[in-house]
Structure formats: C-alpha cells, structure tokens
Amino acid sequence: MQKLIKIKSNDLKPRGGRVLIAEPLMDEFYFGRSVVLLIEHSEDGTFGLVMNKPSGLMINDIVSDLPEFRSVVMHGGPVQTDNVYFLHTLGNEVPESAEIMKGLYWGGDLDTLKEMMTLGLVTPSQVRFFLGYSGWASGQLDDELRRNSWVVSEATARSLIHIKPERMWQHFLQRMGPAYDLWRRFPTDPQLN
User: Fold this and answer.
1) Total-model pTM
2) Helix (H, G, I), strand (E, B) or coil at 178
C-alpha cells in the first residue's frame, strides 16, 4: 500500500527510553496508532513495549500466584505473547531492575514485587504489565523509519504511566508540533470520510 501522507522525518535517533509513534495509516493489530517504548536499541536489533493497547485482561487473570491486584495488562507486542513483562516506577525497591529513563524501570525481582503487592506497598499506578513484546531484527527498524512508518520522540515516565492509553498516541503527536497535525487529524478509517 502506498503511503498517502508524506512527512519530513524528525532527526531523533531511536534508543532506549525514547518512543516510536506509529504513522496513522498503519492498521496492524499491535502497532496501529501505537506508542512503543524502546527498552533497547543496538546494531543487533530493537526491543520495546507497546504502551497504549490494553488487552482487556487483568494481571490476576493471567498470573494465578499474584495477590489480588487491579491492573489491566497491555499488549506489549507480537513476540512471545505467552510471557508477561513489567515496567514500574519503584526504582531500587525492586532489586535487579534496569532504569530505562529517569523514574521508569524495566523488570526486576518478581518475588519482591509480589511481596510489595501483598503488603499493599505498591499500587497499579506504579506498575504496568505487558503480554509479549515488540522486536525488530538488526536494521529492520531503521528501514521502517526511512519509510516514515514511525517517528521517534522523547517521553517521560509520567507520560507513559499516567496518560490514558486511548489518548497516548494523540498526546505524543500533539507534543511534536504542527508538522504532525495532519497525522493527528487523519481518520482511523479513511474510507468512512
């Protein structure tokens, strides 16, 4: 399918802690109007999590040995969709976590997180769970960026954790300025226009 919307790509390069914002014509289940947090980007490939696609499932529907915890699980991407991953804002309180950006951490010791949940020391606003992840082979993401399938943007932990998923794509495009207004206004289904 030929792209109807041509924009000048921005100069930001992908790296861990930045986000990818999908162009509006991408209609793939996981990536249509998605915001993907990049966890790692190197010459070997790219690993990230879709931040704005709720699965409709709660974490207790998927992981039976967790204490009751009212947290919606997100679709993280199309790779290893039978695995659960998590991000959090708890920092070093969860040992073995990796800081992705200021205030946002990847993974860590699940037993410690379970204990914190049991003791009521963590809330759903501090942890986000994902089914699967998004992955690109070496050079694949760079090729997609050249075709303007994505635009790279900066993000904050607060914007990724606290903005409602259904508003996130619009939010990040709006922050990028008027050059992306056409993307924001483009209808979800152009045939209904």
Assistant:
1) 0.91
2) helix
